[in-house]
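hey all, quick one before standup. I had two proteins in the batch that finished overnight and I want to keep them in one place so we stop losing track of which output belongs to which input. First protein below, input sequence then structure tokens straight from the run.
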Amino acid sequence: LFKVPSMKWAFIGTAFFACVATALMYWAPAFMMRAMHIKEDTAGLIVGGLAIMGILGTFVGGVITDMWYKKNPKARMLVGVIGAPIATIGAVIGIWLVFSGQYVIGLILLGVYAFGVQMYLPGVITAIQEVVHPGAKGLAQSMEVLIPLILAAPAPALVGALSDALGGGASGLAYGLMLVGLVALGAIPCLLRGAKYFEQDMDKVKHLTLEADK
């Protein structure tokens, strides 16, 4: 699987999104409780709202991917290039505004982050299925889940370490989350690199079929 360039870069690009999503999902309730002085249940409801925005981002990302694919097959990989800056801007500015006391605008921007951070998903999943050998589609899909999650696993601990190093409390956590929010931008060169190889990788396997054992 790692010999397929577009797939390899898709795995790595997805990991950047996963790092940000994992870190913010883990620390968002604690940050909101500290910055907004709210209780656990209220923080949980807000994070639930962000999750709904993520679902919406996945749906819209899929629609955009299909529409764009009609003009450019590389769209499968390129939608994430659009989602990365949306996620970064929403996360960094949203966290800063919430910390600064501008809760409504800040939470709206965090919703924008949640929307953008999931836009890549339908396109990348489809792209991986289109460049892999028919006999390895299940394995490829499992690797698309497993590899980014493994690479993203240290992200919450990194935010905690940054928070402690930057003074702790709401301010330290805000700075730590904003710094990790920038990580989503790392997906851009990866997905652009993957898009470069996508069509040639797809051509290599489009003639292959999987025959059932008799």
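OK second protein, same deal, sequence then tokens:
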Amino acid sequence: MHPKGRANPAFGVFRSVLLSVTMQPLKVGEFVNYARWVAGMPSPLRPQVLDVEGVTVVAFGSEFERIDEALIPTIAEVFAQLTAQKRRPLVVDLSQTKFFGSSFIEQLFRLWNRAKDEKGHGFALAGINDYCQEILSVTNLKQLWPMYKTRAQAVESVKSSAPPA
């Protein structure tokens, strides 16, 4: 907002540019993330990291309906912190996510590469919608990463494939 209560004209121009780049109207939260990203500031949004029956679950909530470039630096940081710790089975829950791009796929690939055991076990995706499954299918990653409809199914699967502690 402009100090005198009028809308700041720069806001409208910036939002128009983003609209033309993304080809979709942006929600307020998405706009704030883009503005922070353009300014070189990290996103305040972070996925939730949970311990479920000895399995690390990275849960992307409703604020991650659309995972775009503005969120990637923060997600990369969270993923790096997870893999710096002791290796344990890992589930990425994307049940609230409707869209992600190639930058997020790259981050998932890096996470999988660091998190899997020597047999390729210990990593799974949960709650992937049809559109995102199609993206992973086209890239042949659907064959590489186990995918489950629910978080509980994914946790049970990686738990049973994990070596005893």
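Flagging for whoever picks this up: Strands lie at 48-52, 55-59, 66-67, 90-93, 99-100, 123-126, 147-148. Confidence is low (pLDDT under 50) at residues 6-22.
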